[in-house]
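Our collaborator T.R. sent over the components below with a one-line note: 'Predict the complex.' Nothing else. No constraints on interfaces, no templates requested, no preferences about which chain binds where. So this is a plain run: every listed entity goes in together, and whatever single assembly comes back becomes the starting point for the next discussion.
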Amino acid sequence: MKRVLMICAIITVLTTVGIVYVLFSESYTFFQTVPLSDFLTDTEWTPLFTDKHYGILPLLTGTLLTTAIAMCIAVPMGITIAIYLSEYAPKRVRSIVKPLLEILASIPTVVYGFFALTVVTPFLQQIIPDLSGFNALSAGLVMGIMIMPMVSSLSEDALYAVPKSLREGAYGMGSTRLQTSFRVILPAASSGIIVSVILAFARAVGETMIVAVAAGQQPILTGDPRSSVETITTYIVQVSSGDVQHGSLEYNTIFAAGITLFIFTFILNSVSFYIKKRFQEKYD
Amino acid sequence: MINSEKNRLKDKAFQYFGLGCTILGLLVLAVFLGDIIMKGIGRIDWDFLTSFPSMRAKKAGILSAWVGTLWMLGLTAFISIPIGIGAGIYFEEYAKKSRLANLLEINLANLAGVPSIIYGLLGLEIFVRSMGMGTSLLAGACTLALLILPIIIVSTREALRAVPNSIRQASYGMGANTWQTIWHQVLPASMGGILTGIILSLSRAIGETAPLIVTGALAYVAFVPSGPMDQYTVMPMQIFNWISRPQQDFQVNAAAGIIILLCITFLLNGIAVFLRNRWQKKVKW
Amino acid sequence: MEKLSIKDKKLEAINLNVYYGEKKVLKDVNIAIKANTVTAFIGPSGCGKSTFLRTFNRMNDYVEGFRKEGDIIIDGKDIYQKMVRVEDLRKKVGMVFQKPNPFPKSIFENVAYGLKIQGINNKQLIEDTVEKSLKQSALWEEVKDDLKKSALSLSGGQQQRLCIARALALEPSILLMDEPASALDPISTSKIEDLIWELKEKYTIVIVTHNMQQAGRISDNTAFFYMGDLVEYDETKKIFTNPEKERTQNYITGRFG
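Returned assembly:
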């Protein structure tokens, strides 16, 4: 029986090996044709056009732009809500709000995409007249709403885990709740909060459907949130839903894009895992 | 004294700010659901559920999509549940504190954070191409199964960990071996937690779109799949397809489809929460 | 026990009833505590002595279901009145807890914390106060060379003295101690006890303890609580040698509790 169970566990390892193998082998073919230097420095990404360029930068900036917008919403809001729920809110409020926020987190991302495209963009267009129909801003904002519960929930767990005695110590010296939260509890829970932010970041980088629906499919090297951008994930979707011949260079581009994404999230996940392990037992 | 008044004011201000943020978050949720319901509820009728997609928005339905989703749900569950529970048991009960266990641990944490579309690329190369499954339900289900495996494993482990060691020792004390102890004592005691995790992960799976686009779910399917090797579409695919059309009527279809998808998602989540609460009440160590 | 004049009363509870939800945890307690004395609260666990201690700096305020009747008077003022700011109250009424709870900051920052949250930025003043407080709590000699070190690296006894220093930095006039030595080894305990004896010159100290020898060693007066009642309150010497109530006698001699 032990052996059967072990095989189950090994499947998780095989999955990782499979991912790494697939990404490397397919992009190896890609990089035999396109030099890595072009890939990293060329400022255009036009594999599907006649004038082909293979610079990942436009996709990368598109990804980072939407992610940055999302983080601007999710981090301040998520941490504020976490502090409010853990340090201020009565138990009853906490027990109602937490499950409601979990609902936000359980909504399929394609649904968020619909929301971004049909509600947020038209709304923003009234405020910002030259906002394009597909744009980084509304995709980013909605993505921020999507990952916010992740930040608030993980941060709240971290805050809640800070021993009560520290709170009492701070209150006993005449701290207000705000001072207790920011000067004592938040620093004590910092590793958990950093982990939540990193994981949310990784999630935003890898998010696909919101950007595919609402951010557009134009790989433009820009930092302008009003403009339409294409992310790495959108590009993969774009190619996959079209007719691209297996074994062609176009086909291989999605793996080159994929490995860029994978390396990114791999680093983020590893850092968060390290932080979690390192600081876990501080209060035991 | 002046300082302490200032501090009090700041404290109050933050309290209202925090409350405001919380309400804002919930308000977005409400606007969001309200908007979709307003747009789509009128479109839902028997025909919508029993028609195939169509070029004409008003005649289009989601029959192939929800049947596809059910197939996908069943197949994914069938593949991922035994493997997930098995791996969870191995991690928690057998592989403690070896170097291999540590490696498995790091690996698992990383897998949980791999973007779903990367799983799509894996599925495309391995299941669709190398194993020759083509763009079938099975290929999609295998991909989704790998995707939710880390979630099932993690929740299984948590559930197993919640079983007190005294139960294990009592069982060993009566001469049971490890597997007998797990099978007769630990698993039944942790079933609630494991089930909750499985249902939550399945609700995640039915909302996934990206990996299925990559592994070749079709955008337009005018038949009901009859076996795991058939081609298919699923609810989120169909919704994505409708969202991408410029015509207003298709947006209405998308909203209607979303309502049904959300109903399924919330139903599954509701069951999971119910199970969790029930189990927590029943079993108090 | 001598009758205190109004001027001598540092702390006073008048007809105090405390409830947690439906449960009445303190029943009609009356007590008056003299300035610059050490008063010990003793009694079996669950008798309400800790709850009582925490009404003096309103630490119970955040406990859900907490409700009280009657008054707590400090320096002639009712501290539960609306206009009283708990933050200011707690600066005046310092507290040391059962388990040492230094903040996860440096030793220096721990002691400086109380000044900083009041918006005091004068570096010299902060440094002086930190040194003075650490000297008062008899920790200065042990830590003066590594004030930058994390407070969590100190031993349990040192941590507790740091917590005392932290409270003293605010220059309170009253120090509440909730079983401050219960988590410490005997040597650390005796250091804390010596410290309490010295601190009494400047502060009014109220200490909750379940250790009766400790109460006998360090306190001037002792109050014995049982099931929410203040059974007996008198000079420590009298409580331990010649208590009036039989229940006190039984507890002191270890027949129950």
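Summary for T.R.: The CA atoms of residues 161 and 189 of chain A lie 8 Å apart.
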